[in-house]
TrEMBL record, chain A:
Residues 1-21 are annotated as: Disordered. Belongs to the binding-protein-dependent transport system permease family. FecCD subfamily. This is Iron complex transport system permease protein. Keywords: Cell membrane, Membrane, Transmembrane, Transmembrane helix, Transport. The chain crosses the membrane at residues 29-49, 81-98, 110-131, 137-156, 168-188, 213-235, 256-277, 297-316, 328-347. It is a multi-pass membrane protein. One of its GO terms (biological process) is siderophore-iron import into cell. It comes from Nocardioides albus. GO terms for molecular function: transmembrane transporter activity. One of its GO terms (cellular component) is plasma membrane. CDD domains: TM_ABC_iron-siderophores_like (cd06550). Gene3D superfamilies: ABC transporter involved in vitamin B12 uptake, BtuC. The keyword Transmembrane helix applies. It is found in: Cell membrane.
TrEMBL record, chain B:
PANTHER family: IRON(3+)-HYDROXAMATE IMPORT ATP-BINDING PROTEIN FHUC. It comes from Nocardioides albus. It comes from the Bacteria. GO terms for molecular function: ATP binding; ATP hydrolysis activity. SUPFAM superfamilies: P-loop containing nucleoside triphosphate hydrolases. Its main location: membrane. GO terms for cellular component: plasma membrane. It is a peripheral membrane protein. This is Iron complex transport system ATP-binding protein.
Length: 352, 281
């Protein structure tokens, strides 16, 4: 097998191991740059806001003091910054994994109605079942996210050709729109819900507290671990089910586990922030352009890329129209919609 | 009609046997009660008209499709009861039109053939490096390593897919129409490459082929399927006869000795341009 009988004269024998090492170096560099961007964005998020703060106020606020208005404002920005970073990371990973398991470049927990499903489950729980604790919000949100994904997958698979990207996306968009109006219908007559800090129609990170962050942490960790566990399996799914099975992958098991991870991430995040769309669409696409198709690299890229995107979107929302704030969900939609159109217009939209 | 199955050799090469196999999708039965023995260490070509169950049979041999009845045995062990990765270390399958993720590089795609040799969290090993390098060398795709698969020509792409299957380092390699969509020179190139692999590494090769003459030229064994049943099996000289072409493809033909390879060469007899032989009655 080592003999090459058809070797063409004049072709320089490349060293494939060196090639692969070179690729690895480029990718590591991209991730390092991104890590720096996360730090910069987080710093900006703490420093900038609709209220001006001096450097001493900022330092005092970050180190936990909250004397005076400016310091209190900065102290509130810390959990908000962490929430924006964590939520962005979770949504981006969720989008990446959903794209992998559906082999659908348009998959995103927002576009596919997963986040709206979580949202509707939580508001229904509050309105009709006396749901009150944030922990129960998270469980119910994950359940709602799972139900919505199962529904969209079923509807999108109906008819000829199975779950094609466009059918799945249309089913998701329609479901998201319908669920979103249900949310409005549930919330409108109930001022006790609509006055809640969390907007259930457009997601935001303004309501962040340390307690909420600690509550969502175990769920995000579990979801992330599932996704990391499935990273190599997602690479295999990209080769199509037949080839993946032929290479020894359990395609159905991988799909189910990865979906559980993605739904947990999206559901837990939505329970705290409300529905935020497009992060999961934009970041993985950028990742594929920059570092290729390997999910073991795309996962860390999505974690950091999602964090940067949502941090920047949140800062933008705070500074565009002071003293009011624009919810981060609106900003991501403004950024994401053109990307969605660009991806749809690409010729190779049929399969990943 | 000849059915000349190779004797199952007690040692030397993997023993792949199919016993009373019935396969189907939904309420459609595609393969009926099939018995086959694949010659170990040789090149076998499966031929037959469209929808005769060739691809279905191949899918079932790598446990992609569970049998309705009967079984597929590799060295006496049922493949559908063998753990997926364990089986994938011994037997590989290249489907008819495999999908490459957009933007994947040749090196990375071939590397994915190493999947059955890796654990969930294991790192890329020296053995992986060696296998990928050898596969790229053998298929003459080493200078393509950094290119993306989308930008390759059809012939190059097929060589890369075969490289991926080689990196899997299996004793048995199943290929579903590896030459479709290729022009004739690339068809021959791919078949030569598979023959190299068979001769140098002893890999048992089973491929579905459309072209009867190329199948007869390159295969040590021919298996002809018709309506999901075995029509005939054996050496190309025994199998490729005018009766087979008549029975299986419903076409008149004559078979001569190929002056290049001394294998049989089938010449179709249509309604037109028939001057030399007995004209159609």
């Amino acid at each position: 097998m080592t003999t090459s009988l058809t070797s063409r004269p004049g072709s320089a024998p490349a060293d494939p191991a060196a090639q692969l090492r070179g690729t690895r170096r480029t990718r590591s560099l991209a991730l390092l740059v991104l890590a720096a961007a996360v730090l910069a964005a987080a710093a900006t998020s703490i420093v900038l806001g609709s209220r001006d703060a001096s450097w001493t106020d900022i330092w005092a606020g970050v180190s936990g003091q909250a004397e005076g208005f400016a310091q209190a404002a900065v102290a509130k920005r810390v959990p908000r910054t962490v929430l924006a970073a964590v939520a962005g990371a979770a949504l981006a990973v969720s989008g990446l994994v959903l794209q992998g398991i559906t082999r659908n470049p348009l998959a995103d927990p927002g576009i596919l109605g997963v986040n709206t499903g979580a949202s509707l489950a939580v508001v229904s729980g509050i309105a009709w079942f006396g749901l009150a604790s944030p922990t129960s919000y998270i469980w119910v949100a994950i359940l709602g996210a799972a139900l919505a994904s199962a529904f969209v997958w079923t509807v999108g698979s109906l008819g000829r050709g199975g779950a094609t990207p466009l059918k799945l996306t249309l089913a998701g968009a329609a479901t998201a729109a319908a669920l979103s109006s249900f949310v409005t219908a549930v919330v409108l007559p109930r001022p006790d819900i609509s006055e809640n800090v969390v907007s259930w129609q457009v997601g935001g990170v303004g309501g962040a507290t340390d307690d909420k962050l600690w509550l969502m942490a175990p769920f995000l960790l579990a979801g992330a671990l599932l996704c990391v566990w499935c990273a190599r399996g997602l690479n295999m799914l990209g080769l199509g089910d037949d080839l993946a099975s032929g290479l020894g992958e359990h395609v159905n098991r991988t799909r189910l586990l990865a979906a559980a991870g993605a739904v947990t991430l999206a559901g837990a995040t939505t329970a705290i922030t409300g529905p935020i769309a497009f992060v999961g669409l934009v970041v993985p696409h950028l990742g594929r352009l920059l570092i290729g198709t390997d999910h073991r690299w795309l996962l860390p890229f999505s974690v950091m890329g999602g964090a940067v995107l949502l941090l920047v979107a949140d800062v933008l929302g705070r500074v565009v129209a002071p003293p009011t704030e624009v919810d981060v969900g609106i900003i991501t939609a403004l950024i994401g919609a053109p990307v969605l159109i660009a991806v749809v217009r690409q010729a190779k939209v049929r399969e990943l | 009609m000849t059915i000349n199955q190779p004797a199952a050799q007690p040692n030397g090469g993997p023993r792949l046997e199919i016993e009373k196999l019935t396969l189907g999708y939904g309420d459609r039965e595609v393969v009926h009660d099939l018995d086959l023995i694949i010659a170990p260490g040789e090149v076998t070509a499966i031929v037959g008209p469209n929808a005769c169950g060739k691809s279905t049979l191949l899918r079932s041999m790598t446990r992609l499709l569970p049998p309705r009845t009967g079984r597929v045995l590799l060295d006496g062990k049922e493949v559908h009861a063998t753990p997926a990765k364990q089986l994938a270390r011994r037997m590989g399958l290249l489907p008819q039109s495999p999908i490459a993720p957009e933007g994947i590089t040749v090196g990375e795609l071939v590397g994915r053939g190493r999947h059955p040799h890796q654990r969930v969290m294991s790192r890329w090993s020296e053995a992986d490096d060696r296998a990928v390098t050898a596969a790229l060398r053998a298929t003459d795709t080493i200078e393509l390593i950094g290119r993306t698969v989308d930008e390759l020509s059809g012939g190059q792409r097929q060589r890369v897919w075969i490289a991926m299957a080689l990196a899997q380092e299996t004793e048995v390699l199943l290929l579903d129409e590896p030459t479709t969509f290729l022009d004739i020179s690339h068809q021959v190139e791919v078949l030569d490459l598979l023959t190299d692999l068979n001769r140098s590494a002893g890999t048992t090769i089973v491929m579905v082929l459309h072209d009867l003459n190329l199948a007869a030229r390159y295969a040590d064994h021919l298996i002809a399927l018709h309506d999901g049943r075995l029509h005939s099996a054996g050496r190309p000289q025994e199998v490729l006869v005018p009766e087979l072409v008549q029975d299986v493809f419903g076409m008149r033909s004559t078979v001569i000795q190929d002056p290049i390879s001394d294998k049989p060469l089938m010449l179709p007899i249509g309604r037109h341009h028939v001057v030399a032989l007995d004209a159609p009655s």
